Amino acid sequence: MNGIRKRLVGACAVSVMALTSGAAMAQSGNEWTQYGGDAANTRYSTLNQVNTGNVKDLKVAWVHSLGTLESQESTPIIIGDTMYVTSSTGPRYVFALDAKTGARKWTYQPEMPSDYMATVCCGLDNRGVAVANGKVFFGRLDAKLEALDAKTGKRLWTVTVADYKKGYAITSAPLIVKDLVITGMAGGEYGVRGFVAAYKQSTGEQVWKTYTIPGEGEPGNETWKGDSWKTGAASTWGVGSYDAKRNLVFWSTSNAGPWGAQTRGSDSSDVSQYPNLWSASQLAFDADTGKITWGYQYTPHDAWDYDGINEAVLTDLTIGGKSVPALLHADRNGFFYVLNRDTGKVVAADPFVTVNWATHVDLETGRPVEAPNNEKRPQLGKWARNVCPNLIGGKNWSPMSFSKQTGLVYIPAFNMCMDIANREEEYTPGKFYLASEFNLAMGGATGSHLAEFIAWDPVAKKKVWTIEEANMWASGAMTTAGGLVFYGNLDGIFKAVDAKTGKVLWQFRVGTGITQSAVTYSIDGKQYIAVVAGRLKGPPSFFGKIGQKMMEASPEGGILMVFAL
Amino acid sequence: MFVKSGMHCISRVAIAAALVVAPSFATSDDSAARPVNPYTGDKPSVQEGGSLFNQYCSHCHGPWAEQGERPRDLRRLRIRYGDDAITMFLTTVNEGRLDKGMPVWKGVLPDDVVWKIYTFLETVQDDE
């Protein structure tokens, strides 16, 4: 059905390295309190009422229309018996719903300017809210951060985080840390300069703001050619993670801008002088001051739009008998990283999809070793052909999940390559600044399928099983103590899978494409599973013939589906 | 203002423009006032325009104008607008459609770049 084939890569991988979960990290139970389920972004729930034995009986409990028609990417937040969920385009709506019945408690509509759409690159999405201390916080596509009263939906404050007319936007949910609400920003295709900023939850007053690209006179500024640091992107459009024990906030950065790397340094794989810090990097910030504690660059002198923004999942792994405070990250560049989150040192980096732009990551230097002779690096006026992964990456923003039950990471991945060349281009504020030409209408890197859903062993460093998806885009993942992993696809098929074996145990057609992960919660002893659906529109627009196929997979939509036994 | 650039080559291609842009639509009385693409049918301009299109437009309109979102599909300009395609194209590029995500390109892209992009688009128009 739907061209999906399953392949066991080596079921129940036996590993000499045992695995423990990060005891310090909170995890989801009855409530789903934050974007990634917990501050560690594991998207793992301890609920097990719905499990491998009975998931076949899952039925629709209630349905809610999100009121807009594209790119539904919100993660619902459930506190007590209230669910907070946003719609795309703005957001157009913030809803507070009775999590048991779907009845609306309140609806908030932000006052959005009519022209913000012309400075948002890749889809008019909103990934949801953060809730703390009786307040609901969310970012807007016009680069504002807003706070509402969680009970009434009344607006409490709005602050301008950046100027949307220059290409800044906010797409992802903010991060709650103590009395702060911390947000990243988007705009990596508009020549912005990235930052992370923290505000007081009570008033919206800014507490700290840290640029991801060092300014003049600061260490790292010399890694940019000339004034290129001013428009070097390194935006922070993904989500943050928080380690309370270490008081560290983890956020990572986008592509360097513009994509045409000759503007920022060398026009070759010799990246040593101009690696462009901290683009395409993982950063650790002191939560109170915003000071950068350490940085690790995934893709030095990026020329492929390999954003490093994918989520950092925090857990402790036992590797070779030693407990490692790990940060797990599946990068656009195709490598799955295990970093030591105390030091930022790379512990492991292994390809989880077909990778040919680099042969491997040197664990001593921490740097990728690029394919020889600039073969896979686009240069000014010179095409790099058949570069894998393509610019959508081995994985994009759709979140992975780490199951504490199986010790595996479940990754929505892509199986595609591209041709790409650099061009000359002048920077104009508020206009696309890519200096690049690309062709993405190519077949799968390995086999004809365009996406896959992978169970990955982060200790043994290998795939355990894979479900191939014929069309592009497997949605984000959610794992439970019921032995399940949930995910969906662009055709709008929502699936429950046996987390150990990869066997699909249940599926349901929701009518429009799914990209975000599901969530789960429990009220009055009953477990619910909720997922938003609404086929994306941005990426298909630049994917040529594959884009046409994506659009044909399902119509636009805006729907929140909730299931229970 | 767009007809200013490349005026020197207008004489030969003006007739071709009328033919290529809208062969199957009746010409209205004000056709003389319509802008004329100075590069229509010029092969090097088609090629250059395709590359420029990919650089500046493909993020929303697809490489080589190939993608699946009907309202953004520029291979359907002729079907959609007939004789007015060229005017609609220039107006939209110049003034943008901010509430639909189309930026203002006036003052950013030189006239001849815009014309070459249109020259490319003329060669990829769908019939139905």
Describe this structure in words.
The complex is a heterodimer of chains A (565) and B (128). In chain A, 2% of the residues lie in helices and 35% in strands. Chain A is mainly β and 565 residues long. Chain A has one domain: Methanol Dehydrogenase, Chain A (8 Propeller), CATH 2.140.10. In chain A, strand 35 and strand 36 form a beta hairpin. Chain A is globular and about 60 Å long. The two termini of chain A are 24 Å apart. The relative contact order of chain A is 0.16. The relative contact order of chain B is 0.21. Chain B has one domain: Orthogonal Bundle (Cytochrome Bc1 Complex, Chain D, domain 2). In chain B, helix 2 crosses helix 6. Chain B is built from six helices and no strands. Chain B is mostly helical. Chain B is globular, with a radius of gyration of 14 Å.
Question: What's the short version?
Answer:
The complex is a heterodimer of chains A (565) and B (128). Chain A is mostly beta strands and 565 residues long.
Top keywords for this entry?
heterodimer, A: 565 residues, mainly beta, Methanol Dehydrogenase, Chain A, 5-stranded antiparallel β-sheet, 5-stranded mixed β-sheet, 2 helices, 39 strands, 35% strand, globular, disordered N terminus, B: 128 residues, mainly alpha, Cytochrome Bc1 Complex, Chain D, domain 2, 6 helices
The CATH architecture of chain A can be named as 8 Propeller
CATH class term of chain B:
Mainly Alpha
- Determine the CATH superfamily of chain A: Quinoprotein alcohol dehydrogenase-like superfamily
Question: Please, how many domains of chain A?
Answer: 1
Secondary-structure map:
The complex is a heterodimer of chains A (565) and B (128).
Chain A: E1 5-8, E2 44-45, E3 59-65, E4 77-79, E5 82-86, E6 94-98, E7 104-108, E8 130-132, E9 135-139, E10 144-149, E11 155-160, E12 175-177, E13 180-183, E14 195-200, E15 206-211, E16 241-243, E17 248-252, E18 281-286, E19 292-297, E20 313-319, E21 322-330, E22 335-340, E23 346-351, E24 358-361, E25 368-370, E26 384-387, E27 401-402, E28 409-414, E29 418-422, E30 436-439, E31 451-457, E32 462-469, E33 478-480, E34 484-488, E35 493-498, E36 504-509, E37 519-523, E38 526-533, H1 538-541, H2 544-553, E39 559-564
Parallel strand pairs in A: 2-33
Antiparallel strand pairs in A: 1-32, 3-39, 4-5, 5-6, 6-7, 8-9, 9-10, 10-11, 12-13, 13-14, 14-15, 16-17, 17-18, 18-19, 20-21, 21-22, 22-23, 24-25, 26-29, 27-28, 28-31, 29-30, 31-32, 33-34, 34-35, 35-36, 37-38, 38-39
Chain B: H1 10-21, H2 43-56, H3 58-61, H4 77-81, H5 85-95, H6 111-122
